[in-house]
Amino acid sequence: GDVAAHAAARTLVKQIAESADAAAAKPEFDPFGVANDLRRLAAAVHRANRDVVEIARAAMSRRGMGTTVVALLFTQRASLVHVVHAGDSRAYRWRAGHLEQLTVDHSMINDIMEQRPDLDDDVIKSLPQHAVTRALGMEEKVRVPLASYEVVDGDRFLLCSDGLTDTVALEQMERILSGPDHVDAGGALLDAALRNGGRDNVSIVVLRVIEV
């Protein structure tokens, strides 16, 4: 997992950096009304998926490796943020005291809910609680949802793995993100996860919008 995560992160950074000049020459939106920067970010995730698959094929010890991903890309000229993800790593937006989840986990439970919302609760509870149905490295192709949101001054964005969301309640996350600007919200969230007995890796990025 750590090899897959590092490879995916390197590819994302590389792809976004190398496409910056070409992106600047394009209009904000394509002929279909989709932000070109959103398509650029999604393309980088697809490239990262191919890289993870190739690395896994190259060595027996890395067969079956994979990683979830969540990523943001800001378009300053349009005051937009673009969000892509695969798996159960999440993106949240804190605005005016309210914390909103921007992504939907790609999990077995959510997939079942979409197909069989009438299924008995006891049956749903019997399903693997942490089984993801999408991740980088699982298959040669990955479906990546696309979403764009308006950005305003004071917004805070939280990107995190399930190591945080499985141990820290939404209300506690909201309280921490509502703190003053000088408080290290990421560090406070990590401390809360560890105090609550976090047993999984905890990855956290907190971004604060200070000028649009």
Explain how this protein is built:
The protein has helices at 2-18, 20-24, 36-58, 108-115, 121-125, 162-165, 170-177, 185-195, and strands at residues 69-75, 80-86, 90-95, 98-101, 147-150, 156-160, 204-208. The protein is an alpha+beta fold and 212 residues long. The strands form two sheets. Strands 4-3-6-7 form a four-stranded antiparallel beta sheet. The chain has a three-stranded antiparallel beta sheet with strand order 1-2-5, with helices on one face. A hairpin with a 2-residue loop joins strand 3 (90-95) and strand 4 (98-101). The longest helix has 23 residues, at 36-58. It is globular and about 50 Å long.
**H/E element string?**
HHHEEEEHHEEHHHE
Give the proportion of residues in helices: 25-40%
Distance between the termini: 36 Å
Report low-confidence residues grouped into runs of 5 or more.
none
Largest sheet: 4 strands, antiparallel
**Helix/strand structural class:** alpha+beta
Strand element count: 7
Strand order of the largest sheet: 4-3-6-7
Mean pLDDT: 93
- Whole-number radius of gyration? 18 Å
Report the total helices.
Answer: 8
Gross morphology is: globular
Q: Proportion of β residues?
A: 15-25%
